[in-house]
Amino acid sequence: MNWITNYVRPKLNSMLGRRDMPENLWIKDPETGEMIFHKELEENQYVIPGSGHHMRISARERLKYFFDEGKFETLENPKVTLDPLKFRDEKRYVDRLKEARAKTGMDDAILTALGEVEGLPIVATVQDFAFMGGSLGMAAGEAIIKGFETAVKRERPLVLFAASGGARMQEGTLSLMQLPRTTVAVDRLKEAGLPYIVVLTNPTTGGVTASYAMLGDIHIAEPGALIGFAGPRVIEQTLREKLPEGFQRSEYLMKHGMVDMIVSRKELRPTIARLLKMMLKLPESEATDIPEVVEEAPAPAQRPETQAGAQA
Q1: Would you put residue 272 in left (φ > 0), alpha (ψ -120 to 50) or beta?
Q2: Which end of the chain has a smaller Cβ tally under 10 Å, C or N?
Q3: Domains along the chain?
């Protein structure tokens, strides 16, 4: 079989001029099973046209879609001590970091950038769930704090895109200490009179939800995002009760007053621009027309609890 697979088939393909099809040419909608052409999905900012399901995107893709003409300047993350606890489970923590960096091309789970949104200079901080579940450790905490400090220094609003499984367990108490530290950074931004908008993406859970992700002036959620402290499966096991359908999803939380609005990814840039101009009292003819829900996708079915790289 190996001889046929490794020699005969490639030989026949080369003779007939056949080429292997890329594996990622089509992407399957996790909700409906519909097959979507990858290029079409990319042009739609990775929002499934039929169901409105918002797929996860990388931090750099997020910034490219958010800033005017996709132009932005990234800030260098502060350097911190790697593996301060010499932690090891199935793998060494330093090996997990190497793998995450090779996979994402990022130093850690946070990417902060300077750019403009409809001509308004802002600072944007993005958590990338692909980097160890967007978990919050010392490096991520320092990067978030630097983003807030830069916003205060340059007198710019800050928009934070949260996506996390919680605190990074491999750093123990040092990870948990980032929660009060980032909270202080939020307070300093507000003392400077600068707006702070949080965009809650799928998933935003654990200690991140218990700190800076819920301290914004305005909280915007993407459709269908899982948002909460503990996951629904953990809550069900603790309470021994069946949770309501759609529990901890954006639509449920907005109905119960935990988020201010649900906005489709394609409408985030103009919506946030109008909000910021209103908050900064800048002239904007369209600033008075901000819908409560710009685009609401059909409420998704309860999906299995999202696996996170680390939970608080």
Answers
A1: alpha
A2: N
A3: 18-53 (no CATH), 56-279 (3.90.226.10)
